Description:
The chain is α+β, with helices and mostly antiparallel strands. The protein contains 2 helices and 6 strands, in the order ββαβββαβ. The chain has helices spanning 33-41, 72-75; strands at residues 12-13, 22-28, 49-54, 59-63, 66-70, 78-83. A 6-stranded antiparallel beta sheet has the order 1-6-2-3-4-5. The chain is globular.
Amino acid sequence: MASVAADARAPVPLTALPKGAHAEVAALADTSPHERGRLMAMGVIPGASLRVLQRYPAFVIAVGHTQLALDAETAGLVQVTEVSAR
């Protein structure tokens, strides 16, 4: 049985990304139906591309032509895979 290497593109919480990072939304982890609906209405859906504009005092992300401010708890629910800058 071959050993499995760690996947470099494994999803991580949005809160793990540095300012300026580009990522793709992989999943919305452990969200209530209300939280999921709110995030999806703002364009934070699996497959969406985003960029981290700011980390403090709030996480500010760009999704398409929209900029969103998320508190750390909400940002932590967004699972992403980092992609190279475009």
